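Encode chain A's predicted structure.
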Amino acid sequence: MSGIAITTLAERPEYLQHIYDFADTWPKFMFNDPIGNAFMGQVLREFPDQCVVASEDGELVAHGRSLPFVFPDEDRTELPPGGWDRVLHWGFQDLRAGRETNVSSALEIVIRPSHLGRGLSHEMLQAMREAVKAKGHTTLFAPVRPNGKTDAHQPMTEYIEQLRPDGLPEDPWLRVHVRAGGKIVQVAPYSMVITGSLAQWRDWTDLPFDTTGDVVVPKALTPVHADLAHDHAVYVEPNVWIRHDL
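Encoded structure for chain A:
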């Protein structure tokens, strides 16, 4: 893209302090995944060579994170149904054990709101693919959050079958990955699990949470299950595993 430079965070470490200058488009409740809160900040510090940053006129306009892990091995014969949460566990488990990794997983790509709709997500994904390939990895996985899904009751397995006339997925993020050469592998049915008290969920969503049962929350991919007697609500989010052969 004209005027936009994309590189790794390792090459431009000064952008680390600006990663949170602009928010991503996730709803408020999504910032309360305990696994993400424990590990995502560490990804930037531990794996800057495969985190990518985009700048324009010296200003950070997009960033993306990925991490390396070992797959497959005797204990990891399938991509985890725990998706995003589980691959973060695997990556840091392998780091602490000093294991030699052979694949990577994308974790997120965030675009500054002023730069949405300019094709930057495609460029960022390509830069991430190249950064991972530079490490000698031949596969980049991605537990993708299909944020175009608007019907919380529709099964994710059904949603990913929705295609445009050109054969590409209806979902924008899935489409970005497929266009880049990624292949949809399977649904990760419990990729993120977010729990909280009813008071917390009221704060996160501005909804009453005053009855037991399923609550449809804007931008949630599945209903949130509330339990008044036990004063908690649980959100289990499915994501979609995509494989990029590099």
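The first strand starts at residue 4 and ends at 8.
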